[in-house]
Amino acid sequence: MLIVFNPTAGMRRAHRLWRVLDVMVANGVRLQLAETRHAGHAIELAREAAAAGTRLVVAAGGDGTIAEVANGLNGSGCHLGVIPLGTANVLAHELGLPFEPRAVASALAFGRTRPVWPGVATGALGSRVFVQMLGCGFDAHVVQHLALRLKRAIGRNAYVVQAAREVVRYRFRPIKVCIDGDETEAGTVIVSKGHFYGGRYVLAPGATPAKPGFTVALFDRSGPFSALAFGAALPLDLIPRMPGLRLIRASEIVIRSDHVPMQTDGDSAGSHPITIRDAARPISVVVS
Fold first, then answer.
1. Are 222 and 145 in contact (CB under 8 A)?
2. Of 6, 169, 242, 265, most Cβ neighbours within 10 A?
3. With respect to CATH, is domain 2-117 assigned 3.40.50.10330?
4. Strand locations in 87-213 (E)
């Protein structure tokens, strides 16, 4: 078992990791710990481990770390484990993964798995795997400008603070998107594998990452006031009932607009046109 950990996550999260590792080592579990040194390093570590025959690679971190490890494991058949240490932990909530250290250690040792079917975004910069969602528009702009120091200091509330700063700076341009061959436009586009967004907030009721396909959330209303209205509705789980939102099931999505910010699983993903499809096969994720 290889555990991939980002040492810049902060001391508090590192302490939570050590508690999980202490339980596993005390119960005779053999493991290796690899620390990432730069963005994308988790992809390399996971890919190398899978090529060497490692059966389980564990992402110790948030959704961004999980997505990097999933990128490295994609198509390999190696299992993915999760020690949720992130700010939002969307995938962990989506799959009902445990958070208590002993429960996490038990789940990883037992090894029962559930399939998760990642999405693959392909564009001018290559291909990128995401396990939960891809955002295009204002939410991606917020992610791109969010300072790590603020995120560490106040956690998930950092997104609220940064959104309030950026709402008057962002230029709300229409985004051209093609959904299974049908052309349309929206102010913000979120392509989701699961039903949660930003934590345990419902965006796409009924969606599940265990099956192929996506739910595309098209926010037709654009501008600062609409962004603030949707932001206020998010913690109340009112997003799916908001006027100006279309939820469409799809198997292929093409973002045609250029120079529009994008993010995958909370990490910046450039601003070039992309095509989004399912990965060729699911990844087996260890669950409780």
1. no
2. 265
3. yes
4. 113-116, 119-123, 126-130, 133-136, 175-179, 182-186, 188-192, 196-197, 201-202
Look-up: residue for tokens 């910046």?
Answer: 268
- The helix-helix angle for 157-166 and 138-145 (nearest 10°) equals 110
User: 167 near 228, Cβ under 8 Å?
Assistant: yes
Please indicate, yes or no, whether the overall pTM of this predicted structure exceeds 0.85.
yes
State the CATH class of domain 121-279: mainly beta
Tens of pLDDT, residues 169-212: 898 999 999 999 999 999 999 999 999 998 899 999 999 999 99
In sign, the C-alpha dihedral spanning 49, 50, 54, 55 is positive
Angle (CA) 147 42 106, round 5°: 100
Show the beta-strand stretches assigned E in 124-259: 126-130, 133-136, 175-179, 182-186, 188-192, 196-197, 201-202, 214-219, 245-250, 253-255
